[in-house]
Amino acid sequence: MCRVLIFGGTTEGRILAEYCHEKKINAWVSVATGYGRSVLMESQYLHIHENPMAAHEMEGFIRQNGITLVLDATHPYATLASENIRSACNQTGTACKRIVRESSENLKPGDQGEGKVLWVSDLEEAILALQKITGNILVTTGSKELSAFTKVDSWEERIFARVLPGLSVISACEQMGIKGKHLIAMQGPFTAEMNRAMIRQYDISCLVTKEAGHAGGFPEKMEAAAECGITAVVIGRPGKEDGMTVREAKELLSQAMPELQIRTEKKKVSLIGTGMGGEDQMTVKAWKELQQCDVIFGAERMLSGITSTISRAVKVPFYTSRDILPWLDVHEEFTRIGILYSGDTGFYSGTKKMAEALAKEPYCQRYDTVVFPGISSVSYLCSRLKTDWEDVRLVSLHGRTCDVIKELTLNPRVFVLLDGINTVKSLCHILKEQGYHKARLSVGERLSYPDERITVGTPEEIKEQDFDMLSVVLIER
Length: 477
Fold this sequence. Notes:
Layout: E1 4-7, H1 11-22, E2 27-31, H2 34-38, E3 46-50, H3 55-64, E4 69-72, H4 79-92, E5 95-98, E6 116-120, H5 123-130, E7 136-139, H6 155-158, E8 159-163, H7 167-175, E9 183-185, H8 192-201, E10 204-210, H9 218-228, E11 231-235, H10 246-256, E12 267-273, H11 284-292, E13 295-297, H12 300-306, E14 314-316, H13 321-330, E15 336-341, H14 351-358, H15 363-366, E16 367-372, H16 377-384, E17 392-396, H17 404-410, E18 413-417, H18 424-433, E19 440-445, E20 453-457, H19 459-462, E21 472-476
Parallel strand pairs: 1-2, 1-4, 2-3, 4-5, 6-11, 7-8, 7-10, 8-9, 10-11, 12-15, 12-16, 13-14, 13-15, 17-18
Antiparallel strand pairs: 18-21, 19-20, 19-21
Helix pairs in contact: 1-10, 3-4, 8-9
Protein name: Precorrin-6x reductase
GO molecular function: precorrin-6A reductase activity; protein methyltransferase activity
Pfam family, one: TP_methylase
């Protein structure tokens, strides 16, 4: 019988461990840190070893546990660990397979605890990549090409440059507009700890570096980016790494366990209504399902709301079928998929189009789709107003058109979703113009959040006030 040892601490290692659990394959999983252990599920089939091992310790571990197959799923830049694993396997005559990523360019923000690596061929490609990334950027490529980064949107607020502390360098940086706290003039080398401190101090979301080798502190930068869970944009593509993908490793495990009757099972897609805000607005059933997902899609604001409590899943800021389904076509290793939608799944939600897309070939053959409803904005607002909504007409001006006056003529109460164009001010203007001066408007902003605000008044009373562009309004004539 095959006895498997997985060296993990990465998403790939976790996915393979979960596969062993699902298929009831006894496996040993080695991780170097407590965090690596924390993202692994508790299972009678998984035997966790926490703490890094030197080559001779790996060799002893393999012999002691009778390991016959080793899967090296350590981080791409954990080169020393991979060397030790190969050495231990050579000394013990154990089969060893390196697990490689299908494409590092396809990694998306949200893969917490491991870091994301975007390889680009040149500076121009790096700038294009940065245009798609939000948040602060730490540039460590030197001062000579620093001016190119002024092409990045809102660069004055977002770019933090680390350069040598020479007077001419500092002067050149200040002349191009990079100065004050955005200019870090320091002499390296920098340890991983120092890099981590800078990333946290300046709230960095992305680190830009060249593939500069050990002399340039490249491993320390990559280690810090990985531990802080931020994106690293690396100028200079690496050579192709030999090995197998997660999908191929699963096939190898099934072949190595002939006694297992491994069936091709449908994957599960959960369409989850998140309610008005974070996790406390979801149903208990929806929250439990979300905790079982290995990849979660949604708008960035929704993903950020669950990051602190769900760290094990890969998080991808996509929310339309045209983006999500092609991504899943490439990343077949994910079997529990969660897609987040604000509010309720049945009230002007993207759930409808996603469910329709999943019901078509070939996706209906691959996925079982389950919908988890959430608390709608109309239900929440009416509860805060201590009123029912059984006679309320529901309409949306959020990216849509609707004759609100006609609806108000036919219905005593109308609930409206607004957007950045169809605002409270424009609604007040229309109501006054059409003779609804005495209409009662209840405007809800940031519902369920700490800064929630509900304003009640006539069109005349609130017409000059500023409201969040994603407000909702209950109009009573």
